[in-house]
Amino acid sequence: MIYTVTFNPSLDYIVRLDSLKLGAVNRVNYENVLPGGKGINVSIVLNNLGHKSTALGFVADFTGREIVERTVGYGVDCDFVTVAEGMSRINMKLKAEDETEINGMGPKITPDDIDALYQKLDKLGKGDILVIAGSVPSMLPGDMYQRIMGRLEGRGVDIAVDAERDLLVNVLQYHPFVIKPNNHELGAIFGVELNKREEVVPYAKKLQEKGARNVLVSMAGEGAVFVSETGEVVMSEAPKGTVVNSVGAGDSMVAGFIAGYLESDGNYATAFKMGVCTGSASAFSPDLATRPEVENLLASL
Ligand SMILES: Nc1ncnc2c1ncn2[C@@H]1O[C@H](COP(=O)(O)OP(=O)(O)OP(=O)(O)O)[C@@H](O)[C@H]1O
Ligand SMILES: O=P(O)(O)OC[C@@]1(O)O[C@H](CO)[C@@H](O)[C@@H]1O
Questions:
Q1: Nearest alpha carbon, ligand 1 atom 1
Q2: pLDDT of residue 83 exceeding 90
Q3: 127, 34: one domain
Q4: Number of domain units in the chain
Q5: How confident is the model at residue 104 (pLDDT cuts 50, 70, 90)?
Q6: Would the pLDDT of 164 be above 90?
Q7: Residue 79, domain CATH
Q8: Dmax over Cα atoms in the chain, in whole Å?
């Protein structure tokens, strides 16, 4: 069974404006509301690709109820912990001359809420895949992901992690099955700027030396790089197309990688290609990627 954890789910309010002016009233010419948060996006895309998963994490208040209702509407099983204080966040995605994101704070998560999540995770075992993705609310300890992985250590759960900086670096000692930083996040860990696929390879390998099994580095329109636990280095340019909404492209790539891995009986090259095409299919669509959209790109790459 596949599980995803989103500590801080969101309603993504996606708007388009001809031009964004600070300090003025701005009016939008397009708007859309999608359930969001990285783990939820992974669950939705997995479902679109034909793989069931259960979405876990924390929700609160009316926005939390709406997130769950919309996520269930995409066919995903939800088993969130409902927390008492605060509300699930609304994340603004403003598309004007540039793309600007304003991500909210999220509700208060107490130690009892964390215990409730642990009880759900304690049921996982050999053969299960767990995706832990996104930020954790600032009032929580910065080692949350590390604590989860420490708790699951030795149980045979394959864990995928998509997070930034310390949240990511601190879990490497637990040998995550796959991690997916983007090139900017990877560069930030080592204090360098990485713009070309070839430049990424040595730094991806450094994360392997620190413990990661497989490292998938997404590079938006530049494609992606993959370094496998069996020593393969694979690079791909991004499929060609018109970008409509790149929010969730990275999460889609994680979902595509897992789907490709399961469907090919563990062939990493296939998993990587499926990851790249699923990321791009989401970027080329107003919503997240569907199976036919991914298959179209697979045929073209
Ligand atoms: N402009 C683009 N053109 C083609 N493919 C794209 C584009 N942007 C993203 N993709 C595809 O999606 C993958 C993931 O994108 P990206 O590197 O932007 O992830 P990310 O930074 O984690 O994004 P997010 O946090 O919004 O989910 C890329 O490797 C590529 O395959
Ligand atoms: O604030 P975080 O948790 O880092 O990112 C949250 C978020 O930007 O990530 C998803 C896209 O990857 C969106 O659905 C969501 O709004």
A1: 221
A2: yes
A3: yes
A4: 2
A5: very high
A6: no
A7: 3.40.1190.20
A8: 55
ipTM: 0.97
Mean pLDDT, rounded, for 234-251: 95
The response to whether residue 135 sits with its C-beta less than 6 Å from ligand 2 reads: yes
Mind telling me the catalytic residues?
A: 251
Domain endpoint, select from 149, 169, 189: 169
Q: Which atom of ligand 2 is nearest to the CA of 41?
A: 14
Asked if 42 and 253 touch (Cβ cutoff 8 Å), the reply is: no
If you take atom 15 of ligand 2, which residue's CA is the nearest one?
Answer: 37
Is the domain of 127 the same as that of 7?
yes
pLDDT at 97 > cutoff 90: yes
140 and 212 in a common domain: no
> Phi/psi at 39 (nearest 5 deg)?
-65, -40
Q: Which two tokens stand for residue 297?
A: 């790109």
Query: What is the span of the domain harbouring residue 267?
Result: 177-301
Nearest ligand to the C-alpha of residue 252?
A: 1
Mean pLDDT of 221-226: 97
Note whether 181 and 267 are same-domain residues: yes
Q: Is the CB of 279 under 6 A from ligand 2?
A: no
Exposed e or buried b per residue across 71-91, where buried means at least 16 C-beta atoms within 10 angstroms of its C-beta: beebebebebbebeebbbbbb
